[in-house]
Every structure is written in C-alpha cells, then in structure tokens.
Amino acid sequence: MAGVIDTSEFHNGMKIEIDGEPFVIVEFQHVKPGKGSSFTRTKLRSLISGRVLTPTMKSGDKVGKPDIEEKGMQYLYVQGDDYYFMDTRDFEQTFLSEKVLGEAKNFLKENINVDIMFYNGKAIGVSLPNSVDLKVTKCDPGVRGDTVSGALKPATLETGFVVNVPLFINEGDVLKIDTRDGGKYLTRVAVAG
Asked: Is the pLDDT of residue 1 over 50?
C-alpha cells in the first residue's frame, strides 16, 4: 500500500485499496444529514474480480492507495486464451487471459495501443481508447429504398464482435465503435471499395 486516501478526496474513477484488493470508485455521494455525522455512500468495482461492493463509510475514514502502474503497450496477437502485449518503450512482453480482459477483447486488433494496468507488478486489466475503428467483415447488404428511420441490423466486425448498425452499412466499411458502453456504433469512417 503506497499511502492513504481520505473519503473527502473521493472522485469517480479513483483507484483505492480495501482489505488488500484494488477497487475503482464507480459512484460516490457525500451525505450530510441534519442530525448525526456525515458519511459517504460508494459503489466500488474490483479491478481483479470485477465484483461490485456498495460500502458506506464515515466521514474521515481512510482507505489504502493501491500500488497500481499503467504502462502504454501495443496489442500483438492472441494464442489460445492469452492475449499478448508489448511495452512500447523496452519491448518487454506480457499477456492477459481472456477472462481478465472480459469485454475489452472485442475491440482489440493488431497493433492497437492500450494501457495495461499492473497491481504489485502483475497485469490485471486493460484501458482501451474511447473508440476504435474496425472493419465490417460480414453483414446483410444495404437495400436501396430501405430507409426506415432508426432501423438496425447486425454486423460482424474484424474482431468477431457483432454490433447493431444502420441499414446503409455494407461489408468492408470501416466503423468507429465506442468501447466504453459495450460497443455501440458511432459513425462510418470509410466506405468499402
């Protein structure tokens, strides 16, 4: 543990340590009731297991500051259930299992730069860019005149991930996909051809 953090310093996205496990603050609320002492309601997600806790802490309580380091790395390849990354500074390689990556594996294409999170020297997670550009490898063709507003169809991307897209999208198009909320279509970057 690298230090302590007071509950008054909490903010969304902050990383804290409770009982030797690193967590990220998803939500928090400082509450000052008319009677009694103030407290902080929190929603925390474990950076290792993904479990969610909702502890209430008294004002002035202190939690640990985890020994977390983020390194800029480049995604190289997948072998079995392991995804390999290379440090762009010293060319050292590390891997994350499919289980640890979770949904992030849907947005990894070769040579994409990501941040790998290390806790006490062990790789525990990945931070993706807010959006990635991925090519459509399979989808039904767009039909001229089929212009129902808001209608969507499934499209398979180069990573194997399936996303709902507007009817005018065709195979070979390159799409900008939002990585933050499960992979939503944002816009078409390039048309096939």
From this structure: no
pTM of the shown model: 0.71
State the SS3 of 57-98: EECCCEEECCCEEEEEEEEEEEECCEEEEEECCCCCEEEEEH
Distance CA 58, CA 170 (A): 55
Catalogue all structural domains in the chain, each as residue range(s) with its CATH number.
4-64 (2.30.30.30), 68-127 (2.40.50.140), 131-190 (2.40.50.140)
C-alpha distances in angstroms, 132 versus 54, 81, 128, 157? 32, 22, 9, 11
Q: What are the tokens at 24?
A: 């990220």
Say how many CA atoms lie within 13 Å of 169 toward its Cβ. Answer: 27
